Amino acid sequence: MSSATSTTSLPSGLDVLTTFPDVLFIPEITFGGLVWILVASSKVPLPILQGWVMFVSVFCFIMSTTLLCLYIFGVHRGSSSWIALVFAFLATLMYVIHKICSLLRWKSS
Fold first, then answer.
1. Domain boundaries, the chain
2. What is residue 9's predicted lDDT score, i.e. its pLDDT?
3. Are 94 and 56 in contact (CB under 8 A)?
């Protein structure tokens, strides 16, 4: 009895920019850089309050750029990677932590 499993390989090189999920790296990096610039240039009374937002935006920007470079250079060797899943989980976790802390700070003011 044979199983009907299909193995799909991830593209590498500049072919990464031709598939739909991978082409989303470009707006993610673009908007991530804009968030980083906007947070860094904003004037707040207590700069420590924007520290977590700056950390999350810089972390996500650097990780998105790193993942795109790894995919372009073919480090994943064509197989699906769990690194993208871990990155998405960490980014979501950090944004949720920021949202909870922001809500608590807003509630106490």
1. 13-108
2. 65
3. yes
